Amino acid sequence: MHRVARIDGDGIGPEIIDAGVTVLDAAGERFNFDIDWVNFDIGSERYLRTGELLTEEDITGLETCDSIYFGALGDDRVKPGIIEKGILLALRFHFDQYINLRPIKLLDGVTTPLANKKPEDIDFLVVRENTEDFYVGIGSRFTGSEKTSLEVIRNLYSIKFGIDVESDATEVAYQIGLITREGAERVINYAFDRAQERDKSCTSVDKANVLSDIYGLWREVFTSVAGRYPDVKTDFTFVDAVTMWFVKNPEWFDVVVTPNMFGDIITDLGAMIQGGLGLAPGGNINPDGISMFEPIHGSAPKYKGMNIANPLATIWAGALLLENIGEKEAADAVLKGIESSILAGHVTKDMGGSQSTSSVGDWIAKQIRT
Amino acid sequence: MHRVARIDGDGIGPEIIDAGVTVLDAAGERFNFDIDWVNFDIGSERYLRTGELLTEEDITGLETCDSIYFGALGDDRVKPGIIEKGILLALRFHFDQYINLRPIKLLDGVTTPLANKKPEDIDFLVVRENTEDFYVGIGSRFTGSEKTSLEVIRNLYSIKFGIDVESDATEVAYQIGLITREGAERVINYAFDRAQERDKSCTSVDKANVLSDIYGLWREVFTSVAGRYPDVKTDFTFVDAVTMWFVKNPEWFDVVVTPNMFGDIITDLGAMIQGGLGLAPGGNINPDGISMFEPIHGSAPKYKGMNIANPLATIWAGALLLENIGEKEAADAVLKGIESSILAGHVTKDMGGSQSTSSVGDWIAKQIRT
Ligand SMILES: CC(C)[C@H](C(=O)O)[C@@H](O)C(=O)O
Ligand SMILES: CC(C)[C@H](C(=O)O)[C@@H](O)C(=O)O
Questions:
Q1: Structural domain span for residue A208
Q2: Is residue A105 part of a domain?
Q3: Domain named Isopropylmalate dehydrogenase-like: which ranges (chains A, B) (predicted)?
């Protein structure tokens, strides 16, 4: 028996999670385990109703679960940032889910926007750091009348190039990113462990030539971890360049490890080359704690309730969840189910099919059961 | 008579600039102007010899020129960051070249790695802010024994989410990005001016949902500038999503304006969809000062002196330079020359041809002269 939290969230969230739950329950039937689903009413609706983002009670409840299955967040009535930071990022930080795992894999039968690339060319793993970097939420804004605060920044952080960047500015905003040695080490370790199980190659993506302080530390840690994995080939690439290679030579990559913000960017690009957001799952993992699995797409409010959204990313995220709670065979069966739905053309409109969200879930559940 | 500085830089820099100079001189002959080329010995070689990056004398000399034609920088013998920050970024900052202009245009006859995209689908302009954001070079590192400094950061910049991010860390690095109202305004104004001459659409790329302080200010400024251009359609996209749309729907974009770091990333992706770095020029522009034009690729040390590097990005950068110094007709002729070399297959190996660097330059020069 596994106790799994479901957070449907906003927009298409409830529909895609429904489809995922159908599939995971079928996998439980087939492989002899039960999932006890625990519902949490967390999202924009409640925020608009009560002003609450994440309550003490939510946290206490989630802490009784083995894992979290997460739909999607975002509502046009709420300013960008509130919900994402107050719920999604808050959960990642609270549960210290320091690994954001995003497989980039072109499944058989899926169309990629890249010319001449086949499933064997696009199959790598992005390991995104998930609790540091520019996601720590430290920053502020000053106006001219608060010049003293500006002076504080200026003096504290000796401006380089001998240039007084903001001398005449009437308003300045700043944002701080942090990388700690321990924070970098644990996620890079994880990436090397995964590389050892795969093709034994690990690429670090950073921008150490410009953001030298944080990514200089990142590189040092990467290099020192690499020393403990002599059988893994390593490589450094700058984030700007890596966007080119994802498009031109995705076959070069096996495991890619990267700080939080660059991970955000390159995994959306990765999602597109594997066929689009409708197909891209993510895991927010704390190997010693409670992990959370989600499609990496948003809540698509305009499709809410229409039963047309593509549930495959969510179902695939469900497979990652099963693997994480020790049901590896079931996880494999779910991924196989996804593949067979694609090959059978039993997919939603965005993938060229004509099926509804629930019908895709039901179909895959049936494949798994038989 | 125009006085133009040439900074060849490292690796293939001298060869590609030679080809560019040949073409620009030909354009001068044809359209009746002379270019007085002034050579500057700036780059890794000198740095390794003398320890100098950019001297007072360099600056004084460059200040006597109307424009700067810049090759490429970078040498494997120097740690990442030193040369880039000490020369390239230092020049951008010193001359306050606050606009980094990068046309993304698939020329006729060029192969894009995207399936089913034609020249009419890939034709937009990225306007990258060039003097602020995370490029200001402010950051530092602390070790555990300097805990007090850590406390300073912690207290000064109230950590959000109620989470004490780096509590047990033995080493922390931080990096600060700045956006000023004036800094955002001037580059966004420029982008809207360009949009007005084109298809009247301007897209802002940011990550205001997470880095809310700096990009919140950026969005506010974008919105207020947009109010002065009622004929220009506007749109906001997050940087992660925009990498998807560049690959899936590049035809959606006309002018894209973005802060420095995201601009760095998305223009490399843009370069790839327009056929690769061999074809991507950039202008570092100060409309009231001295601007600088360069290919956006690096110095490719391993091809140094082999006369095989693709000079088209540099020649195209030369066209942008000519336009900037008021020689619009000549600029158009250079771009036409580039297009005809591609259509004639008179190109380097990376583009499927068999020509040398200098032969491509000579051929285009000849086209322009006749
Ligand atoms: C919604 C947003 C805060 C989030 C992020 O930036 O991490 C999303 O883009 C993602 O990649 O999971
Ligand atoms: C070399 C590097 C410092 C530079 C940048 O990051 O701006 C380059 O990538 C560019 O895009 O011009």
A1: 112-132+179-274
A2: no
A3: 3-364
